[in-house]
Amino acid sequence: MNRIKKIMMVLLILVMTAGCAAGGKQEEENIAEELKIAVTVFPLYDWCRELSAGAENVRLTQIVSRSSDLHSYQPTAKDIREIAESDIFIYVGGESDEWVEDILQQTEKEDRQVICLMDELGTRILQEEEKEGMEKEDHEEETENDEHVWLSLKNAQLSCEKIAEVLEGKDDTHASLYAENLSSYLKKLEDLDEAYREAAASSDKKVLLFADRFPFLYLCRDYGLDYYAAFKGCSAETEASFETIRFLAEKADECGLAVIFCLEEGNVKIAETVKENMKNKDAVIMKMDSMQSGMSEQDTYLSLMEANLETLKQALK
Fold first, then answer.
1. Domain residues for 272?
2. Quick one: 300 and 220 in the same domain?
């Protein structure tokens, strides 16, 4: 009886081992069928989410968390693994993405498709400006390309077209789905672009004032708007001198501006100080969302750009 029990136990172990091996093989097949997409920041994540909607095999990962500031981000071991294992990796390509190049070299993958948006956008890329009245940097820096490309709806359209093209090439099973999603999403982007254009064209005011960093250069260029700001878009400075405060306050009064802007996670104190030094004491402080940090699970690229439009309308009254 003991011998029979031993034989049965051996058989049971063999069956279980075979089952595990089969399960492992099946799991490997399932993983192979997945389309792993890794992106750096939220706008790219949301574009991919919209374009891949309905494709059950897509696994989408955002590397830079919604609570992190992309300008000071440092990748974790988990982030490096996500990029290494990705079939498609998408990043912006600006100064804040300098860490990406090293990871791509260290995690070479023959069939990985990499999209650098600033490379794809080519001649549409703008350089950061040192505008009159801006706080001077503590140290000399070379002029950098402005990396906030997603704040142009035209750039968003071009970027989505490229992403959809790569999706279709990587996953022909869902190619028609990606094409349909692209067509639908482009229409929404185009409609919102037209709404921005109408808002800017219908106003006599063409100047915005930011008592903060200024990442909205692409948006202003798209709609013929001028601006003044305390700092450049990627500036590391957080303290504004009295000269900068006074300049912004005088410009706001000179241009008849009733709105002082700061960013979603910006320092409101600078805006408050500008207001205190203005003749127009009825001026209000409002926030524009640059989508660099602080997004909630309910936010989408379109919802945030729509909210920015409503805020912009108030400033253009």
1. 204-315
2. yes
